[in-house]
Amino acid sequence: MARQKRQHCPEADALAQKLGKTIQRLRVADNMSLGDLSVQSGVAKSMISQIEKNETNPTLATLSRISTALGTSVEAVLASGTNGSALIQKTQIKDTPVLKSEDGLCELRIIGWIDTVNWVQWYDFRAQAGGKLESSAHPKGSVENLTILSGQVRVSVGQETWRAQAGETLRYRADEEHTIENTGSTPVHATMVNILAHSVRTMNA
To answer: Which residue of 24, 76, 82, 108 is surrounded by the most CB atoms within 10 Å?
Structure first.
């Protein structure tokens, strides 16, 4: 029986080529060799090379393993490969989750990317006068970064207390219970970034 000739689809070929280039770009950006990516993903080095050169079409399972090893998601890789745009995601304010403090005077808007939540979390923080945000301990070794955009706050961790005002940043260990309190008469607006324990260890390695 004669082998069927492969039918080429221009759109599919263009997508596959962009997909390969995206994987190669992410690998090089992470200073990973083909061998490094092969070890971390469990995908054969020759297969990764073929994908990058658009010589084969990876299965979803293969793409998932490669994406995880590159610290991203299949969705992000496909989105980048689909339209060639540098934009990964755009969210509307109505889609941004909001957390409230127990006193109802503070709110945290979760503006961090869900794909990095296990390493870094960031928030838009606002507090009315007298508002107090009480937080439980994060994993041992975690660091919280608080940049005050307007107003003034008092931050307490254990028995230690610090104050900060607009234009200042506090970085403190957040592996104990900690509080942020608006000590002024005007609203506070700040940016909060939590770097979780294993990320801190990686940076110090």
So the answer is: 108
